[in-house]
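FW: tagging you since you asked about this chain on Friday. Here's the raw sequence from the shared folder, copied in full. Didn't touch anything.
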Amino acid sequence: MSEKELLDQIDRYLNGEMTKEERARFESLRIEDAAVNEKVVEHKHFVGLIKQYGERLELERRLDAIHEEIDVHTLEDELMMHPSGIVRLWRNHHSKISVAASIAIFAVLCTLFFTGYLANREINYLEVGRIQRLEKSQKALSNKVNQLDGNKSVRTNPGIKGTGFAISSNGYIVTDYHVVNGADSVYVQSYDGKSYKARVINLAADPDVAILQITDPSFKALPPIPYNFKKAESDIGENVFTVGYPIDAMVLGMGYLSAGSGYQGDSTSYQISVPVNPGNSGGPLLDNKGNVIGIVDAKQTNMAGTAFALKSSYLMKAIENIPSDSLNKPINLNNKNVLATLNRVQQIKKLQNYIFMIRVYNQ
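HL: got it, structure written out here
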């Protein structure tokens, strides 16, 4: 199948234009071919972004209006007169302002690309300049608020993002130590886009494990965990899969165990042949029956094309070694696996509410 034919099929699949039989065949292909599945996920994500193009004219109008309203010198006067209210406003909404600016830049770049401006190097500098002025105004407001607040600017470090997964229904999540080490604050984001404040209750550099607890009052307990933790070691050649957040969308990765030891012969880990990126760090590694057999460690090494996962037996030891005085609720590991009889698509649907994006904020 050519690249064009595959993209045509993906479009028909995502647009619901396939017959029931065609859809079943295509979903089977996604399960069997990890590369095809990745293309589907990436294309869906990309198409979702491109749909914002239709709102471009309205976005431009709003950007112009916002920029006209923002006068940094006037803001400075207002801040000095009413500092506490402005600080609270900035604390509550600074992330939304940043996201809006990022979306604006992306929308303009998409416009330039799809109209051929980038290919012809006929860049609309007036349009880009308008957004740059908005960003400049936003940064000036941020700096002034931070001066009044008496703290350093708090921002997300885009290089520190990973995946975590639930180990109990009452808000305990496991991820990699290197994902959250040194963090000033940690948030976890669920599949439906809800974000929750979390605290780090235990860190272990060896093995590379961190246990988090969701402390956000809006969090509601999850249904019973659908997977369990495999105590015995798995065999080389076994088919395995991962679910995580290498991008701002859940991604399935499929492959196999390629070695019974990890980096430089580390007996606590597996070497896996699965497409992973740093954002996969902390995600679960599962076998075909849905047993958790490890936790992905996607730190960069000098071994191209390889990835590693801490074996589940060592993950369980790390959980068992958490000091009891660190827990305000017990961690009850699940011993039942309801994924064993399900196909891959059904397994992912069961898993998705238990896999979280980990976002770390530093001063």
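FW: Residues 155-363 form a domain with the Thrombin, subunit H fold (CATH 2.40.10.120).
HL: agreed, and Confidence is low (pLDDT under 50) at residues 72-84, 119-125, 148-159.
FW: great, closing this out.
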